[in-house]
Amino acid sequence: MTRTDPDSCPGVLRLHQAADGPLARVRVPGGRLSPEQLHALAAAAVDLGDGNIELTSRGNVQFRQVRDAATLTDRLTEAGLLPSATHERVRNVVASPLSGRLGGWTDVHPLVPALDEGLRAHPRLAELPGRVLFTLDDGRGDVSGLGGDFGVHALDENTYALLLAGKDSGVRVPAAEAVDLMLAAAHGFLELRDGQWRLHEIPDGGARLTDHLLATRSGLDASAQPLELAVHEDIPIGWLNQDDERVALGAGVRLGSLPARTAEFIAAVERPVFVTPWRSLVITDLDEWAAEQVVRVLAPMGLIFDANSSWLLVSACAGMPGCAKSLTDVRADATEAVDSGRVVPTGAPQFARERLDAEDVVAVGRQHWSGCGRRCGRPKGSVTDVVAGVDGYRIVPAE
Ligand code: SF4
């Protein structure tokens, strides 16, 4: 696939003109937010946006209906959330959210600032399309299945597999060289691309980039047996005991839209928070008493700590009024479906249906609601589609 148009991914310095007003996307490498940064985001959502912080499938955040882009830029810069004007849109880095706290072979989070700084240090890497994605998986397999362009996947405490276009390249690399190799891969992609936005859009892109790396860097080989990478569907929700006897809380966010007031409460807990690529949060490093208080206060505000909640099965695109292409307000319809018990937990068979009024949609298991056939924001993996058309909703069962 050769593209002739530049990618149109929004940033803070390049807003997207959505149907409901300007939209700004803020990159959050590794999803990590300090309490001060979360506070700054919440304040910006109230003062300059629609009052909500939207979580994206890359662990970034965005504001809708932005009123004053210059002030937003100043505030985010002051909060350390906009460290580069030239590279802001290429800082798409997801990392295993629980890494270093529980599970996994190693802690990948220290690699995130190193990768981010390395990206920003190379002027040429500002030419990367805003759609590229870096993944850092600590071996548990939660983010390697997201189909990143360049990634590393821990095999033990000191060895990573290099992933290209979402697949194992067969290259193995010591931890100390992992960031450098991902940056080299990003440079190699720029050499190979002919307008493509993603590595997988280049015919044999992963294999060609592997060959490029083998030819340009000494000491590499690609002879390892490739890993099979699966999409991870168990998102961290609820009470999670960290290895250091503290507690992390996984919190689902309804349709990925976090009200600023809820964000303020989370920021007041004064602990690191991770935005996950599943449009949820992980609040970390709590003692048991604090964790109990967080659940007691924030569950009634709508955060989801129950892994069996139907809300965790449902995602939706922007829909009407945010998207001019939308045929209906899918988020309102999806919300009504959850509230009225028409989101059925997994187990029952799902049948294809069409020409349904919103109140007649009953869908099973993980489901994505879309305001048109483009199905923006659809999660990876086995997902039933609920798609608005001119003659009603269509249900397309997961494959
Ligand atoms: S799926 Fe269609 S309606 Fe929904 S955001 Fe994308 S283009 Fe808009």
UniProtKB/TrEMBL annotation:
This protein's record includes keyword Transferase: no
Alphabetized UniProt keyword annotations: 4Fe-4S, Heme, Iron, Iron-sulfur, Metal-binding, Oxidoreductase
UniProt enzyme class: oxidoreductase
E.C. designation(s): 1.14.13.83
Protein name: Precorrin-3B synthase
Encoding gene per record: cobG
UniProt-listed Pfam families: NIR_SIR_ferr
Nitrite/Sulfite reductase ferredoxin-like domain segment(s): 24-69
Lineage: superkingdom: Bacteria
Keyword DNA damage belongs to the record: no
Organism for this UniProt entry: Nocardia aurantiaca
Single GO term (MF): precorrin-3B synthase activity
